[in-house]
Amino acid sequence: MTILCVRFQLPPMYEAALPGLLGLLEEFTPVVQALPPDGALADLRGAERYFGRTAVELASVIRVRALALHGVDCVIGAGPGPMLARMALRDARPGVTRAVAGDEVRDFLAGKPVAALPGVGAKTARTLCEYGLDTLGRVAAAPLSTLQRLVGARAGRELREKANGVDRGRVVPNAVSRSLATERPFTRDELDPGRHRRALLSAGEELGARLRVLDTVCRSLTLTVRYADRTATTRTRTLPEPTAHSAALTGAAYGLYEALGLQRARVRAIALRAEGLGPAEQASHQLTFDPVDEKARRIEEVADRARAKFGPRAVMPGSLAA
């Protein structure tokens, strides 16, 4: 058990605290991979030897320091590799690290549904279940040729390896997340386009704030509308320029929504995903000399400082629309 997967119990949108928490992990190992908005992977192979403690013992120290220095609790999963640590995290709870030792991997995986395996989507899980391969134990025991016929040659080989506990992943220090997402569910199936647009405004502001905290920009935006009958529509638009500007993200979201031409659709939830993330310092911004745009950007800067100082509720959703 040399890899930890840590999820800090941060309030939504409070990613401003994440860099400090990552710094806490880096006191134990330089091999730390951020998992925004609230998590990280840490490779403790060197730390176990240096400190003379197991990964589980070091996890307890990390939890205590996070509480003492940042007032943040966390849940931690530990395993021989990143995939197993992530899966162990799902069974963890505050105060107790869920650890999966090397000799426990097969038993840990055997009874889990195939959908619990990272990389197995709903379509693949449905296909496997139709052939009776509904648990990872059954997938692990299935002939390789059978899996390859069902899901393809490469995917079948990778699926069998993972189901048998072969974890070829590694922790990549300072890796940039490829996307950020947020969802706005409705308390009941919503028909009102005005409420749909308010949900898009709130989601666009949140994504912009999260991107700016991470000092990143996105190159495209994906809108997913989930309906009452459990179907969904997804559309993606490449942005004119990489941005973390909430107004630009919200405008793109409005455009995607209007292009759907929804007529009396019963919407259960709306989700936005910012994709193609990259460092903000490498992005260029086309000057418009538009005083309204410049004013909006200055207001964003003030709002970001308020969130960093007073927390995510310092600025109410929609308050930047003016």
> Mean of the pLDDT scores?
84
Number of strands: 10
Roughly how much helix do the residues carry, as a percent range? 40-55%
Q: How would you write the strand order of the largest sheet?
A: 2-3-1-4-5
Largest sheet: 5 strands, mixed
Oligomeric state of the chains present here: single chain
Series of H and E elements: EHEEHHEHEHHHHHEHEEHEEH
Dominant shape: globular
SS-derived structural category: alpha+beta
- Which percent range describes the beta-strand content? 15-25%
DSSP helical segment count? 12
Question: Could you please describe the fold and organization of this structure?
Answer:
The chain is of the alpha+beta class and 322 residues long. It contains twelve helices and ten strands. The strands form two sheets. Strands 2-3-1-4-5 form a five-stranded mixed sheet. Helix 1 crosses helix 3 and helix 8 packs across helix 9. It is globular, with a radius of gyration of 22 Å. The mean pLDDT is 84.
Give a quick precis of the structure:
By secondary structure, the protein is an alpha+beta fold. The chain is 43% helix and 22% strand.
What descriptive keywords fit this protein?
5-stranded antiparallel sheet, alpha+beta, 322 residues, 43% helix
Topology of this protein?
Blueprint: E1 3-8, H1 18-26, E2 32-35, E3 39-43, H2 45-51, H3 55-70, E4 74-79, H4 82-90, E5 98-99, H5 105-110, H6 122-130, H7 136-141, H8 144-151, H9 153-163, E6 179-190, H10 193-213, E7 216-227, E8 232-243, H11 246-260, E9 267-275, E10 278-279, H12 291-310
Parallel strand pairs: 4-5
Antiparallel strand pairs: 1-3, 1-4, 2-3, 6-9, 7-8, 7-9, 7-10
Helix pairs in contact: 1-3, 8-9, 10-11
